[in-house]
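Protein data:
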Amino acid sequence: MRNAFLLAATFFVGSLQMSAQVMGDEQADPPEFSLNETQLKGQMYWLASDYLAGRRTGSIGNDIAAEYIASQLQGFGYEPINDGSYFQEVPMESIQGPTRGSLKIGQTVYEHGEE
């Protein structure tokens, strides 16, 4: 989903080591070089916190984390690259495990839910 892409992109941007951008006669450091350890720890603790309830794809915690990351990218001055959005839609297919099952070893059959 869009959130998985955004999360991966943020970690990439956070760890990316780019050369300084030249602006006129001055050199400007990219925003990721202005992070200090305390700020980064705070962001990682928030994204990993129980408040986001595991950030499972499609969950409200995942949506909150994605919006947080998008706001951080915007705050650092990064321009959206997907038609004016920080998000990319990724089609996901939902699957569910079987409700019944059995295992046969030799002549013995084990049914799900039975001893």
